[in-house]
Amino acid sequence: MEEKMKLQPEDFQALEVTTELDAEKIAAPSLTFTQDAWRRLKKNKGAVISLFIVLIMIVLSFGSTPFVNRDTLVKSQPQYANLPSKIPGVNINGLNGKAEVGGVWVDKYAQAGVPKDKYFIFGTDYLGRSLGQRILYGTKISLIVALVATFFDLTIGVTYGIVSGWKGGRTDNVMQRIIEVISSVPSLVIVVLMLVVFKPGIGSIILAIAISSWTTMARMIRAETLQLKSQEYVLAARTLGESPTKIAWKHLVPNLSSIIIIQTMYTIPNAIFFEAFLSFIGIGISAPETSLGVLLNEGQKNFQFLPYQMWYPAIVLCVLMISFNLLGDGLRDAFDPKTRR
Amino acid sequence: MKLAKLAKASAVVAISAVFLTACGSKSSNSSADKQVLNWSINAELPTMDPSKATDTVSFNQLNNSMEGLYRLGKNSKILPGIAKKTEVSDDGLTYTFTLRENAKWSNGDKVTAKDFVYSWQRTVDPATGSQYAYLFDGIANANDIMEGKKQPSELGIKADGDYKLVVTLDKQIPYFKLLMGFPVFFPQNESAVKEYGSKYGTASKYMVYNGPFKLSGWTGSNLSWSLVKNSSYWDKKNVKLDTINFKVNKQDSTAYNLYQSGKIDATVLGAEQARNLKGQTGYTNREQASTFYLQLNQTKSEFQNLKIRQAISKAIDRSQFVKQVLAGASTPAKGFVSSGLATYNGTDFTTASYVKSAVNYDTKEAKKLFEEGLKEIGKDSIEFTILSDDTDKGKKSTEFLQSALTEAFGSDKIKVSASNVPFKTRLSRTTEGNFDVVLSGWGADFADPISFLDLMTSDNSQNAGKWKNEEYDKLIEASKTTDANDEAKRWNDLVEAEKILMNDQGIIPVYQASEAWMVKPSVKNIIFNSAGVNYNFKETYISGN
Amino acid sequence: MKKYLLKRVFYMALTLFLVATITFFLMKLMPGTPYSNQEKMSPEQIAIMNQQYGLDKPIWMQYLLYMGGMLHGDLGTSFQFSNQPVSYLISSRIGASAQLGIQAMIFGIFFGIIFGSIAAINRNTWVDTSVTVLSIIGKSVPNFVLAVLLQYYIALKLGWFPIADWDGFAYTILPTIALGVGPLAETSRFMRTGMVDVLNSDYIELAKAKGLSKFQIVYHHALRNSLIPLVTLIGPYTVALMTGSMVIENIFSIPGIGEQFVKSILTNDYPTIMGVTMLYSAGLVAVILLTDIIYGIIDPRIRLAGNGD
Predict the structure, then answer these.
(1) Contact, B190 vs B111, CB < 8 A?
(2) Using one digit for the tens of pLDDT, what is the confidence trace for A233-263?
(3) Over the stretch C245-276, which tens digit does the pLDDT of each residue have?
(4) Could you report the predicted ipTM of this complex, rounded to two decimals?
(5) If you ran DSSP here, which 8-state letter would residue A177 be given?
(6) pTM of the model
(7) In this complex, which of C18, C148, C266 lies closest to A303 when CB atoms are compared?
(8) Pick the CATH number of C93-278 from 1.10.1370.30, 1.10.3720.10, 3.40.50.300, 3.40.630.30
(9) Which stretch of DSSP H or E encloses residue A52?
(10) Residues of chain B whose C-beta is under 8 A from some C-beta in A?
């Protein structure tokens, strides 16, 4: 036996270094969690387009503030009332300043004596105010409402959820009962009650949203915090005497970020819908300010005669809602690959 | 016992009527011989109790299903109702009505003088909580009873047998007969009120009727009901419609969709719809007897100056105001008294008393007057706040006035701020005199100019601006006393009074509210009055297309 | 189980008590009076009327009276409809709302399940994509816009259904669709996800291996198991239908609670506002409890007695 295995020192030769770790190599560059999510999001065409639409809307509506604001909204030119769309260079009936009156297409701009070079791309309302400007302003209001709702979700919702989950025991129990009370009144009813007590306007809507919008976020954060609490790294941090605030900030929030982002994306369309709904039933934003809901309500009354006055704000509102919904779906898939199919 | 049986029987009739009308409404297009009117309104019917009604829907249903001493016809003309003969004493303080003997309640009881006595006493009784009891002011002891100082039985109304009614007044009421067409003065069947108790007037079956129609299918909170011809009405041969179906549609667009599809014959229009439908067949403008006007607080030196008051009035472009603030569904005011309210010898009160210079728009003249006025009071500029409601309309109104005045006189001469408060706050601040300028509204309850002009007498609590004019007070006083029984003189007094008010710019009228309707041309003979109860369908009929 | 139920019911009662209290005091903050003709009434008369409505009493007393009445089912008297008890207003109008809500829920869930399943079975085909697109649109179009469009195009222009009113089944179809599209979109998205999950699981592979037909697999295994999580959606749907009904009933002139609620807000009818708010809350709390119980029964993995979450 021994004779068969005669190993000489020269039998042992070093392999070339280059071939050494080939099988273990990670081909792709190393990515952080956010980078990975971004990569996945970029693959989702719908989400990317939505993101662009949302960004464009934000830029347009906020960027227009110097040109479209309270002062310009008040100004009216009754002589240009109820003009249809007129887009430079387009000659399709309905978009060229003509409207159907008793079966004949009539040039409304000529009738109203509008100068040749004046265009209202989205037409005008009953006081001759540019509908386009009003839609821009309305979109801004919707986005502000969305931002505010997000803000309360992030501040009240997240903090409440973390505290409730982290403290546990009696504190948790009481905090959960409070949430139960708030969420057992339909949130729109809360909003309506708030608006009845305080006078309608953007301030009251914001206050009402502050009260009612954050409960879902708080619940989800609490459930997740309960799980994270028993993770080793959190235990380690606790044993080492780290302060709870620091733990929350350093360990919990980063790990909760995907839930936070996803939930936010569902809060936004809900908030936009809220505002539109309230304005539609007549207790939302009041004149001279306007919002998409107000425009829809005004347009709805006129739908039989001047359908464009409802269609344009409706389309803008729907595009906004669709974009946020698609973006929300995209982000959920990106941040939570397990649910992706 | 007997009554209970009768009530049951009438309930059965009412219920079967519901079924009949339900069938009737479905086949209304095919059966041409049936006269059916389908009417759309935008609010529910809150009550059928004549003592408690406060809104136009209730008043309209009451006016068509009940009847008082008189029924108001076209231009508030007084037509016979339950009273067939009226005697007025020489001093105008005692009215003796002889009632017709063939008037019946829908439960079979006869309509007697006692029903009037009972009804009136019930209304002025503070325990009933009638919000329209103030109309009894002037009837003997009414005010004391309302304040709880006297018993309801002491009211100046007595039944002399079953068919004679004697009413005594504290002071002359020249428009007394007009009031009798208003539902709070209608009779009420005591046995029905007692039997139904707190349910009285809360559903069509908890009510008895003595008018041209009977209400049916109203559960107290639903959105559709009908008025069906009352076979026990004394003048039923002149009632032409078999059924009027009422449908509540709160969205104007829904109502107009229904109108277009032929499901309803008449509907009120929203401002936007009115603008688009103006001039089409069926478009009807119904002026309301309510005027919106500015009161200037005359305890402030700048508003004691006539030229400044006139300047402010002339700086307001009323037709633009109507267009911008009200989206076109109202008319610029011609004076304090609303137009279409009262006529004499075929002339409308507003035409007779029109003072053009008090309501026209003339910025040049306004500016001149304003500067002269400033010199007279020795000031370089004035500053004030306009008080109004915090509603959408209130805000738009103050905004408009603010910009109109600033534009007319320049921001260095005038500084106008706006204060928009809830309705209740506005009222209390107005009555306390805690305001500079306030935008108020007033609606007339009966078709007589006095229902407006009374407000501006020196001691009236509604005269919050404290405008005083002795001559005006004298004319109003004369219209109530010396000239009360002389129609021509009284008319003249009131016309002169309005002219004084306008020439002295005691108030600044802004606009008169009105409603736009689409009514099918086939619906004929609808009687509409701008004050008090709006609709009388007694002789309405449908013919042609 | 019994103990758990008792505990839940106790919390329900506590919740409703708090809601009632908060609403009561909110209403007291509201501006305006119940008198529509206040301008023309004398101060004495207003005082007498206040006395009749009990508004002259101190607030704590009004509160105790209100709460006491509520225990007996007395929600006070409406200001808008004279002498009409709020409980009567609610009971006479709840039928239409309940019918509409239930129909919309059934419509939404039923078609949602069908669309969702079809999408899941035909995953990653054009069928799947179109269902997804439709459900995103369904989620994004506000129901009041949809209602106006349906009324104008389907009812007025095409004349297929009545425009408005509440007088038989035909009248319920358009409002049901307008109200049910939201739940439909949500259900179909939810269903698709759940079904895909189930179709990927081992027991479906086993069923396939046993040679069951596609229909048998979907019907007997996949559908049943993916239906379970749907129960959790009933609560949120109830909320959506309650609020949605406020405008839908308004647009289609339906004598329901939602429409009544909006009207009572606009006319300062506090007793009705409070009554309807209580009704909504009680309804929602009950639905949540019911779905929790149902969920516990059909899915034994969830232990009821566990965390009350």
Answers:
(1) no
(2) 888 888 888 888 888 887 888 778 878 887 8
(3) 888 998 999 999 988 888 887 777 888 888 88
(4) 0.83
(5) H
(6) 0.82
(7) C148
(8) 1.10.3720.10
(9) helix A45-63
(10) 251-253, 256-257, 260, 270-273, 275-276, 320, 323-324, 327, 390, 392, 395-396, 399, 403, 422
